[in-house]
Write a structure and sequence with these properties.
Blueprint: E1 2-6, H1 15-19, E2 25-28, E3 31-34, E4 53-57
The structure holds iron/sulfur cluster (SF4) (2 copies).
Amino acid sequence: MASLMITSECIGCAECLEVCEDEAIEERGDRFHITSACTECGACEPICPVQCIVRSYEGPAPAVGSAS
Ligand code: SF4
Ligand code: SF4
């Protein structure tokens, strides 16, 4: 299952707060975080000016390439 997270590249512009309809983004100190209320709608991903909203995958990492 994928979940979204905000990396340390966040500059705190609050653009993502504006687009999140589920109020799943909150400010903690000088960093922004995505909470468990996130429905993974993806609306916040393209609007981040520094592309610091990324998808993380839980569980085994998908294989990259394949041994041949
Ligand atoms: S993916 Fe959607 S619900 Fe989740 S934090 Fe971004 S805008 Fe909010
Ligand atoms: S849009 Fe990106 S840089 Fe701006 S507050 Fe959200 S995560 Fe941080």
